[in-house]
Fold each of these.
Amino acid sequence: MERIQIFDTTLRDGEQSPGASMDVEQKLEIALQLEQLGVDVIESGFPVSSPEQFRACKLISENVKNSTIAALARSTEKDIDAAADSIGTAARSRIHTFVSTSPIHREFKLKKTPQEVLEMTRKAVRYARNRCAEVEFSPEDATRTEPDFLCQVLEVAIEEGATILNIPDTVGYTVPDEYARLITMLRNRVPNIDKAILSVHCHNDLGLAVANTISAINAGARQAEVTINGIGERAGNAALEEVVMALNVRKDLLGLETGINTRQLYTTSRMLSTMIGFPIPRNKAIVGENAFAHESGIHQHGMLSHRETYEIMTPQSVGRETTRIVLGRHSGMHGFRKRLAELNIIIKEEELKRAYEAFLKVADRKKEIFDEDLFSIVSEQFGTTTRSLVLEYLQFHSGNTSVPTATVRIRDQQEIYEEASTGDGPVDAAFRAIERALNITATLVEYNVQAITPGKQAMGETSVIIEIDGRRSTGRGSSTDIVEASAKAFVNAISRHRLLQEVVHP
Ligand code: KIV
Ligand code: ZN
């Protein structure tokens, strides 16, 4: 089977997305993870643009052994020298140089004639080829470039020694059919094209980046330029995980493979999302929270009979734990019964109907029903008791010259527990004080804060997921003070955990 090269540009084009910047150490961490993932080429940055970028490219080159390290350069000697110097120590290196070729870029950005752009291409590739054994060339804004001129530019780049020709859809303008035709045209018309491989680089302005990438690959491109989670300029680039899984799942149709270890996809995606603080949308393909979750009764029934009725790949194949059968108001009796059984709640068949009706009432009011909700529904129906903890008092101090401390008082029915603790910040101090007061150890798995009313006095809502003794529970808290909202959510999650513990199976 033919292999598609995966060129990851998370650290270059991805990092150009507003708000996604990473420091040098973070970039190295991502690069090492990309190596684990098995990407063929890591574009490590644009070294001439800043000393930090240069340092990052250098550090990555010194530490990554199994992927080619590329660095970006405009068509000037200064840029190309910076690129060559920064990646010189890499086991395998590549200079990626580019020139704008479309009429609009030539006129308004470069202020150059077509002839001058041709000369810039010739000189840049020649110079780069003298500094590095492997050169990739990109005619920027290729999809809005006149076909004849594009062919001429590519021919010159190959003559000067470029062996990878990238055809960027810089502004996300093309559509799948048109892009495939462009690739086919280049394969037919550029005379020396057999000396190079064609690469594709798609932006997502019309939401077509992945579709365009697959379409171009189908037409003969053999390298895909992609980013983790699809981050990148404006609406982003084609998402690596989506392109790779499309090739993987549709091998039957496309007959192509990649060197990616797909089981590393989820970890890589989460690592990047946490590092740059870009949450992954719930419905994002492959790595979103809902990508392997089923709520409707019909789907749950189908899934429980045969997984492939509603899943085209397994969650495990992308490094996720398992399919989630989400209970909500669309869930049927099958899903409800199965989840109770998984939780080891055994109810007689005649009681099941009553419990299911109670569940539907709650589900009408609540978006998603968690395990602890199920326990409380069942325990209400069958008479077990529940206790909730109340955060009665919270005081905290923090500042840039003092150690953050927090004191809490928690009521558990008639009992009062009070404790104080220091921490890395006021929220951490409050969490530690709560753990001490209740004599438990909870691992914080997820922590989210959002404003739920506008303005300076906005109410903040905090949600947490904690794990105690291998069991997860969620909690929410709101307040105009974020530390208080966080402490309330933490106490709420512990309360819910207790509920899980105390349910007596009816
Ligand atoms: O989108 C683009 O055209 C680019 C080039 C530098 C390849 O990122
Ligand atoms: Zn780009």
Amino acid sequence: MNTHATRRAAVLATLADRGVDALLVTHLPSVRYLTGFVGSNGVVALSPDGTVLVTDSRYTVAAKAAVDEGTQVRIEGVDALPAVAQTLAGMTPEGGVVALEAAHITLHRADELRGVLTTLGRTTRGETGIVEDVRVVKDDAEKALLRESARINDAALARVLAGGLAGRRERDVAWDILSALRDEGAEGPSFDSIVAAAGNGARPHAVPSDAVIPDDTLVVIDMGAIHGGYCSDMTRTIPVGDPPAKLREIYDVCLRAQRAAVAAVRPGVACAELDAVARDIIADAGYADHFGHGLGHGVGIEIHEAPRLGRNAKGELASGMAITIEPGIYLEGLGGVRIEDLVLVTDDGAEVLSHAPIASHDD
Ligand code: ZN
Ligand code: ZN
């Protein structure tokens, strides 16, 4: 079975447990995952009877080239909903249940589909996590793409840092990252890069500004590449000159927390427990109130996907998950630090995919 057929079979295997006969996939990253199709409009109807990709005429050639023989392509007009409903009804037994992706369909479209399917003798039900639960564990093809995406990201950062940081505007460094990612082979950035020096570093999601990066501070750089449709994500906090003692202190605490969390990664560890490994170290150092966000998140076709690593996160790690480990400490007015690696959960630990050097005061 090819990669996409294997993934579809894994999803189909879970439908019966949910009491569902067919699934309409409306989330584009999941459409790509299950069929290989990439475009701005496409839905997948999936049942034990088969797989149908419904898209429009802009994608006639691309869709046929992307899918395997197990997926039928149907080209419809812009208002494809009636046709999609007919397709789903044809793949579902009389009185059967069609699941809709509750997190990825508008109420308007769901109502319209429900209307047509009801007249055809089928019921609809909103479900969450059907495809996501399969996507959360990466297959070998995905792991290879993630490794290369991370390698591109490492190389791009090295290029940018070779030009130095002090005296340049944050915004210019951010543009430099974009071109370095392209030069290293990325299809694009996986998100808008963050370049945040001195006080701006205290904002976890700072937007690069016109501010000139001064001497003697920390610069938070958070960046990612897309390769083969897969995202990478990495943060390095770069000391420029001789940062003040307080910033050096939070840097060391954050680094200890990050290393402890990476060392604790293995299958079976609860997501909330992993978060606590880093959070406890930061709290013990007196900075509990300065680490507001979660420890990390899953990464794949989407830059933020399951699992979520946070204080109240559910579930546990499993071999094959791709996650970030990114504790941070943020001091308003002074600066911030975040250190983020992309890691794969292996059978007995972690494979760290981010290889860009991490500054340490020991060296
Ligand atoms: Zn990041
Ligand atoms: Zn991240």
